[in-house]
Amino acid sequence: MKNRIVVPVLVLASSGCMKSFDRYHAKEVEIEAKMVMKNIGISLVTGYMDRQALCPASTPVPADVDLLKDKPYETKVGEWDTTWKCVLDTDNDIPANPFDMQKQHFQYAVAPADETTTVVTAKGYPGGAAGGLHTLTMTCKVIDKDLKCGDVEGLSP
Asked: Long-range contact list for 65-70, CB < 8 A, 24+ apart?
């Protein structure tokens, strides 16, 4: 009776811990996306104050969202240049490549919805491919000659 086997209890506890860790990591990845989107919003607002015009649509980075299914994406040189220049070329201390020397977990894009509205979108797999594709959006709208960005919508509960 002295030699009991407690491995199954440890396996169950370990399994529960892993699920909790996976949920925590998915939330952490979503928070990263929300922060990046807010920074893009700051750039859009600052740029609008200077130009009094919305930026044209950007090319999504990365171009293929499925590259994010199994691992973070490492930005390649020049991906944030051409179509992102209007969005990120401001004097508000946000780098021209928001992921310079970092890996990203979401695909980001900016697209005008109409003459007074632009939408920032982030798509990704914060819980890996098994967790499914999540889409987050933030709408920025011209109100009284100023561009104002709303909250990021679409976060998991």
From this structure: 65/107, 65/123, 65/124, 65/133, 68/104, 68/105, 68/106, 68/107, 68/123, 68/124, 68/125, 69/125, 69/128, 69/129, 70/128, 70/129
| 146-149/134-143 β-pairing | antiparallel
pTM over 0.85: no
- Which CA distances in Å does 42 have to 92, 137, 147, 157? 8, 15, 10, 25
Q: What's the pLDDT tens digit per position in 87-97? A: 886 555 555 67
Q: Are 91 and 46 in contact (CB under 8 A)?
A: yes
DSSP 102-115: SEESEEEEEEEEET
A 10 A CB-CB count for 133 gives 14
